[in-house]
């Protein structure tokens, strides 16, 4: 009769060495203590904030759409027009760049150029790009339009290029075998395969661009963000609440309609 | 030991999966449940431990009626019924030992199971069962590192860890090759005979059923159409169960009882107490 | 030779007409939007832009390297803001995700819509807007930034996590339920092990995004590198702006590398 052990411990899963495990836990703890230690929280200011927080919450619950309606509608129109124009222009520019950035259809030097354009567009944040465009082109939605177009290029081109690289090679092979030119190859083998995805991505980007258009106004690039910034600066929390509610509602509408359209088109 | 009285299950879709099923299983008997896909085999097995809620009828296990029990009582009764699944249904990312110990969840409190501190007797039993199914050295491996046959052995050990009074076995060999299937069936029968444990084995492979089962129940469209020994299972009896088609075809293509799975899924998706 | 048709068209005339009409609508909408948007654009400024760009570019180079020492504390602040904000976001998002998932929600009829609304609200408001609000309420500083990052992270982590919970393998849940386990034990033994890798992946991914976002939150007063950026922009100290942008870029690249490594190790 053999006897079986009466204790069992779950073996460690990732860090099997005891020293590592304890060391990492200790390091995390020390980091937390230090990080929280450098916070410099001013409790007096926060206590004061409680009252403002309540006022904001009240503003959110009883939003005031009417007294700043002119500013709000102006901001909304700017945001919406900015969103549409920048998506159209951004996608139009993205298509050649996306084709150029696909390894299986573009020569090496074009590939390198297009990939660097994508990398630059993705590395720079919208808000930083907006600061520069505002400095160059002046305040207003035109700078915002440029910012969003620029960001759209990085997003759409990259995903489009990946889609083209993922296409079914057999179809391209078959078209190539008929003696088709490069342009015919793109038109007959690539376009039918990536078109539905491209439309889906464009709609998705339309949705993202609207959200972003609410933000870049903070640095002067027009849109509803500028209106919101002004309202908060003036402590008009009821107007700010109204604007936020409208942003949430519009984003929800945009998200649902874009996902519905994408399903409908595919 | 187990007694089913007029068990009926009608799904919300209006499909009747079981109609008036009655039979009893004495202690130590191994019953094979055969029938074409959609005959209600999965539903029947899941009705017994109420993973699927029967519409009417009674399930009596060792003198205790399982129908109409509250959540807490149902938990206590489920401990008495071990279940072995078609695709093992191990928790893939937990170790083999944790999978076996999960058979004890009905006995220990949440905190003990959360910290993985099971009573010494449970751990000893788990080791003994792992040794019994020949996986002693694999205790600390992750379940997804094992082969199909090994996983099913862990599944058996998990069910036995409950110290059940009844085993429910749902297509134990459906995902295994013929040789491993035989090994697993042999192990199951051995274990049941050793401890006089009754079992209901849902099985699609008729020759395998004839080889290992003591009694065979044939189900067709939710009704018992055959109940007898493997020797009595003649060509004409098989035609009665499977219809006039070539019943040998049933050995290969098997489909899950879709309704039963969907219903269990829907019920489990409403986890709240 | 028999008389096969000599012309062939891909789409029926009606479908082609509809397609052309669709494109026409899009173009008309674009032109209209363009005109509305640019009503107040001063085209003189736009024409002047290349000159402005050259001017700013000239002022920006070379970066003022000596400023690097002053950036170390804001950099530390930025990293803390991202990390502590992610931590806060995770703590708040986990219960929301379990309430939002169809298969784990305790009272689906009431709690699911609430949880889903929290997720949508958090996702539709950018962290910069959250920061704008919180700076107005709590005053400028890191705390506002941390809470802003945390609030924005709830939606992201909550959404991905609840989708992960809904995709868990139901058979494993069924098997654990059949042993007589309680709801809490089913959660602990069948659901948590299945979503744990996804959970760590999502968390690290969000941390990476949060590093980018916390670098600019200072623009509205929430501390970190963005605050220095704002000061430098206000004083037109372009060489400092260049250096700050370089530091942000380096941090972002590094955090992206770390997050990719960690995610590869987990999955």
From TrEMBL, chain A:
Record membrane topology: Multi-pass membrane protein
InterPro entries membership: MetI-like, MetI-like_sf, PhnE/PtxC
Q: Name one GO molecular function term.
A: ABC-type phosphonate transporter activity
What are the ABC transmembrane type-1 domain coordinates in residue numbering?
76-256
Please state what the protein is called. Answer: Phosphonate ABC transporter, permease protein PhnE
Alphabetical list of Pfam families matching this protein: BPD_transp_1
| Tagged with keyword Manganese | no
One GO location term (cellular component): plasma membrane
Q: What does the UniProt keyword field contain?
A: Cell membrane, Membrane, Transmembrane, Transmembrane helix, Transport
Q: Which family does it belong to?
A: Belongs to the binding-protein-dependent transport system permease family.
- For this protein, the parts annotated as crossing the membrane are 20-46, 76-99, 131-156, 240-261
Which classification does the entry list for the species?
Bacteria, Pseudomonadati, Pseudomonadota, Alphaproteobacteria, Rhodobacterales
TrEMBL record, chain B:
Keywords for this protein: ATP-binding, Cell membrane, Membrane, Nucleotide-binding, Translocase, Transport
PROSITE patterns membership: ABC_TRANSPORTER_1, ABC_TRANSPORTER_2
Task: Please give the superkingdom of this protein's source.
Answer: Bacteria
- An annotated GO cellular component: membrane
Where in this chain does the record put each ABC transporter domain?
2-246
Molecular-function annotations in GO = ABC-type phosphonate transporter activity; ATP binding; ATP hydrolysis activity
The family database entries (NCBIfam families) matched by this protein are listed as: ABC_phnC
What is the name listed in the Swiss-Prot or TrEMBL entry for this protein?
Phosphonate ABC transporter ATP-binding protein
Which organism encodes this protein? Frigidibacter albus
Query: Where is the organism placed in the taxonomic lineage, from the top?
Result: Bacteria, Pseudomonadati, Pseudomonadota, Alphaproteobacteria, Rhodobacterales
Which gene specifies this protein's sequence? phnC
From TrEMBL, chain C:
- What compartments host this protein? Cell membrane
The UniProt entry, under PROSITE patterns, shows:
ABC_TM1
Tell me how this protein sits in the membrane. Answer: Multi-pass membrane protein
Q: Which InterPro entries match?
A: MetI-like, MetI-like_sf, PhnE/PtxC
Q: What is this protein called?
A: Phosphonate ABC transporter, permease protein PhnE
GO cellular-component terms in the record? plasma membrane
Q: Which GO terms describe its molecular function?
A: ABC-type phosphonate transporter activity
* Keyword Cell cycle carried by entry: no
**The organism sits in which domain of life?**
Bacteria
> Major place of localization?
membrane
Q: Which gene encodes it?
A: phnE
Organism annotation = Frigidibacter albus
Q: Which family does it belong to?
A: Belongs to the binding-protein-dependent transport system permease family.
Sorted keywords for this record are: Cell membrane, Membrane, Transmembrane, Transmembrane helix, Transport
User: Which CDD domains does the record cross-reference, listed alphabetically?
Assistant: TM_PBP2 (cd06261)
Show the stretches that span the lipid bilayer. Answer: 17-37, 81-100, 107-125, 131-151, 237-258
Q: Which residues form the ABC transmembrane type-1 domain?
A: 75-259
Q: Which Gene3D superfamilies match?
A: MetI-like
PANTHER family per record: ABC TRANSPORT SYSTEM PERMEASE PROTEIN P69 (PTHR30043:SF1), PHOSPHONATES TRANSPORT SYSTEM PERMEASE PROTEIN (PTHR30043)
């Amino acid at each position: 009769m053999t006897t079986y052990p009466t204790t069992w411990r779950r073996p460690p899963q990732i860090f099997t060495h005891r020293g590592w495990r304890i060391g990492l836990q200790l390091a995390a703890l020390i980091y937390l203590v230090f990080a929280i230690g450098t916070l410099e929280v001013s409790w007096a200011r926060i206590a004061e904030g409680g009252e403002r927080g309540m006022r904001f919450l009240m503003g959110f619950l009883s939003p005031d759409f009417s007294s700043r309606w002119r500013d709000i509608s102006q901001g909304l129109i700017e945001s919406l027009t900015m969103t549409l124009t920048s998506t159209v222009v951004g996608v139009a520019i993205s298509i050649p760049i996306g084709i150029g950035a696909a390894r299986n259809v573009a020569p090496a030097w074009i590939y390198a150029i297009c990939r660097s354009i994508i990398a630059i567009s993705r590395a720079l944040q919208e808000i930083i790009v907006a600061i520069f465009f505002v400095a160059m082109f002046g305040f207003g939605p035109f700078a915002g339009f440029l910012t969003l177009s620029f960001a759209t290029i990085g997003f759409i081109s990259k995903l489009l290029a990946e889609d083209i690289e993922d296409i079914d090679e057999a179809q391209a092979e078959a078209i190539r075998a008929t003696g088709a030119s490069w342009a015919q190859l793109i038109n007959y083998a690539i376009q039918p395969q990536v078109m539905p995805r491209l439309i889906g991505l464009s709609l998705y980007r339309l949705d993202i661009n609207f959200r972003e258009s609410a933000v870049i106004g903070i640095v002067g690039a027009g849109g509803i963000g500028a209106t919101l910034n002004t309202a908060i600066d003036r402590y008009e929390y009821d107007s700010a609440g109204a604007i936020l509610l409208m942003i949430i509602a519009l984003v929800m509408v945009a998200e649902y309609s874009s996902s519905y359209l994408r399903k409908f088109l595919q | 030991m187990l007694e089913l009285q007029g068990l009926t299950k009608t799904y919300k879709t209006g499909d009747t999966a079981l109609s008036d099923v009655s039979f009893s299983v004495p202690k130590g008997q191994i019953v094979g449940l055969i029938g074409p896909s959609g005959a209600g085999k999965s539903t029947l097995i899941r009705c017994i431990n109420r993973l699927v809620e029967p519409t009417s009828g009674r399930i009596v296990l060792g003198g205790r009626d399982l129908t109409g029990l509250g959540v807490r009582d149902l938990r206590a009764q489920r401990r008495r019924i071990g279940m072995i699944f078609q695709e093992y249904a191990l928790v893939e990312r937990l170790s083999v030992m944790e999978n076996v110990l999960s058979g004890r969840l009905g006995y220990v409190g949440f905190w003990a199971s959360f910290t993985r501190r099971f009573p010494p007797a449970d751990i000893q039993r788990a080791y003994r069962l792992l040794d019994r199914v020949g996986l002693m050295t694999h205790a600390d491996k992750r379940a997804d590192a094992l082969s199909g046959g090994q996983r099913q052995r862990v599944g058996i050990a998990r069910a036995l860890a409950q110290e059940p009074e009844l085993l429910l076995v749902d297509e134990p060999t459906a995902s295994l090759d013929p040789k491993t299937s035989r090994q697993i069936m042999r192990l199951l029968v051995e274990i049941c005979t050793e401890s006089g444990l009754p079992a209901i084995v849902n099985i699609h492979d008729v020759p395998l059923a004839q080889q290992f089962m003591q009694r065979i129940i044939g189900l067709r469209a939710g009704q018992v159409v055959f109940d007898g020994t493997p020797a009595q299972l003649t060509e004409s009896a098989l035609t009665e169960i499977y219809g006039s088609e070539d019943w040998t075809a049933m050995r290969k293509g098997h489909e899950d009882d879709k309704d039963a799975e969907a219903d269990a899924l829907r019920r489990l998706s409403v986890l709240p107490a | 030779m028999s008389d096969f048709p000599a012309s062939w068209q891909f789409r029926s005339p009606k479908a082609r007409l509809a397609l052309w009409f669709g494109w026409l609508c899009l173009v008309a909408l674009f032109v209209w939007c363009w005109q509305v948007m640019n009503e107040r654009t001063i085209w003189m400024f736009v024409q002047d832009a290349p000159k402005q760009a050259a001017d700013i570019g000239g002022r920006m180079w070379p970066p003022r390297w000596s400023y690097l020492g002053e950036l170390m504390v804001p950099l530390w602040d930025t990293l803390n803001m991202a990390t502590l904000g992610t931590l806060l976001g995770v703590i708040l998002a986990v219960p929301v995700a379990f309430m939002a998932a169809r298969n784990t929600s305790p009272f689906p009829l009431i709690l699911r819509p609430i949880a889903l609304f929290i997720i949508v609200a958090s996702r539709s408001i950018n962290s910069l807007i959250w920061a704008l609000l919180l700076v107005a309420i709590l005053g400028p500083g890191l705390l506002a930034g941390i809470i802003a990052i945390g609030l924005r992270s709830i939606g992201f982590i909550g959404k991905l996590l609840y989708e992960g919970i809904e995709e868990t393998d139901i058979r494993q849940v069924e098997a654990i339920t059949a042993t007589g386990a309680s709801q809490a034990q089913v959660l602990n033994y069948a659901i948590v092990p299945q979503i744990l890798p996804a959970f760590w992946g999502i968390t690290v991914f969000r941390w990476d995004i949060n590093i980018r976002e916390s670098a600019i939150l200072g623009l509205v007063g929430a501390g970190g590198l963005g605050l220095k950026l704002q000061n430098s922009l206000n004083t037109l100290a372009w060489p400092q702006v260049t250096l700050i942008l370089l530091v942000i870029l380096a941090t972002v690249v590094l955090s992206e590398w770390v997050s990719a490594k960690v995610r590869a190790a987990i999955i």
